[in-house]
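[09:14] KT: can someone run the structure on this one? pasting the chain below
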Amino acid sequence: MQLTRFTDLGLRVLMYLTHRERGTPVTIPEIAERFAVSRHHLVKVVHFMAQQGWLVTTRGKGGGLALARPADHYRLGDVIRTLEGMSDLIDCAEPPCALRSGCQLKSALDVGLTAFFEALNQFTLASAVAEPTGEAIIRLHRRPRPLASDAP
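[09:31] RB: done, structure tokens below
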């Protein structure tokens, strides 16, 4: 199974926001620059996560993003399942499968998918940013931002 770019960005944003030792709010342009990703795509990811109640967003000057809850309240399996928008690995109804009436593949895949998310739910966002990841996030926050005149 491969996670979508949407999920990858969502997880990175959540991880980046776990670092709270800074005086200025985290912004979408900052995250886009730090991870070298499209600001436009990141806006969609952040908007979705805010709708889920995972992020608090503040608009305008001095605005930015923050986690809505402590990092140990985000179970990775639940987060990934929601970001992926996934309920089934395959849909036997569309297009209609000729094997549908006598096939056990879907039930086997459903069991595997459930086990996958249950296994991931043993981990939280807090455990995902444990050392050495936490230190890498702090270094990413501390990295100087390029000046506008330095941009290509």
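[09:33] KT: thanks! The mean pLDDT is 87.
[09:34] RB: yep, looked fine to me
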